[in-house]
Amino acid sequence: MKELLEVLAQALVDKPEEVNVSVVEGERSVILQLHVAPEDVGKVIGKQGRIAKALRTVVKAAAVKEGKKAIVEIID
Amino acid sequence: MNRVIETEGASTEEAIEKALKDIGESRKDVGIEILSENEGETGVKVKLAIRDRRASRGVDFLRDVLREMKIEAAVNPTEEEDHTLINIEGEGLGPLIGRRGQTLDALQFLLNTVANKGAFHRKHIILDVEKYRVRKKKSLEELARKMMEKATATGKAVTLRPMTAYERKIIHTIAHDYPDTETMSDGEEPYRRVTIYPKREKVK
Question: CA B124, CA B112: separation in Å to the nearest integer?
Fold first, then answer.
């Protein structure tokens, strides 16, 4: 899931080398904290949060496959 | 996503410019390979292979995403009139579609954002999984017809469930076959819904 979020975020931003995902593992849920370059924050949030919402939907779908609940946090 | 074009110009460069103009593309969005050049009396005849960078960027992105989702599937792009259609085929692709196609819609949105990043002209990409969208369109059309008939028969307006813009368009299109009804969308996204009005009732 970490790698999935990295791939998604790297494709969206201008500075892929600054994409970093840290994972806080819980029993049934995983918190994925997405860090990007300050000027790229808008690129992973999008107009009215549309990109952030789509990112969450896709990551959640992958998490369900692994029987987990994923929470994506965008750190700015 | 790839096409071969034959063109002519005073020079190779001019021939390429002309070809791009004819297909309405910018040099920024396509890769060009010269397959052959023949100099004649009137100019140069050039055969070009033109590759759509946006579509290939999209396909690469999808392959990366599928790999990370541990899904083995084939990614097949085809060029349609005004968009690129990418169909994903394989087994166990349910999670890729999600409830009412939510995951598929999210992935399509990300795919379009990534593919058109920095593009001069945007190119719309429609993503499908195992022809899910085709099947869904059929069932939506059936639903629309049934509800149009209901509205006409009962003389009462029928409101459908909230739908995406694409789904609503399918309903509005079917309405053209039913001159006794009118359709209108109401509400804010993502709860916008279509109501079918029998024409008589609406007038009063």
Answer: 7
Q: How far is the alpha carbon of B125 from chain A, nearest alpha carbon, in Å?
A: 16
> What is the per-residue pLDDT across A24-74, written as a single tens digit (0 to 9) for each?
998 889 999 999 999 999 999 999 999 999 999 999 999 988 888 999 999
Domains of chain B: 3-50 (no CATH), 54-130 (3.30.300.20), 135-201 (3.30.1370.50)
Question: E strand or H helix at A44, and its extent?
Answer: helix A41-45
Q: How far is residue B59's CA from residue B57's CA, in Å, rounded to a whole number?
A: 6
SS3 B160: coil
CA distance B75 to chain A (A): 17
Q: State mean pLDDT over B56-66.
A: 95
How many other C-beta atoms can be found within 10 angstroms of the C-beta atom of residue A47?
A: 7
User: What is the SS3 assignment for B42?
Assistant: coil
Interface test with A, best of B103, B111, B127 (most A CBs within 10 A): B103
- CA-based end-to-end distance of chain B: 52
| Domain harbouring A11, CATH code | 3.30.300.20
- Strand bridging mode B158-159 / B193-198: antiparallel
Q: How many domains does chain A contain in total?
A: 1
pLDDT score for B201: 46
- Tell me the three state secondary structure of residue B40: coil
pLDDT at B200 (0 to 100): 65
What residues form DSSP beta bridges with A31? Answer: A24, A71
From chain A, the residues in CB contact with B65 under 8 A are 4, 7-8, 58
Residue A28 domain boundaries: 2-75
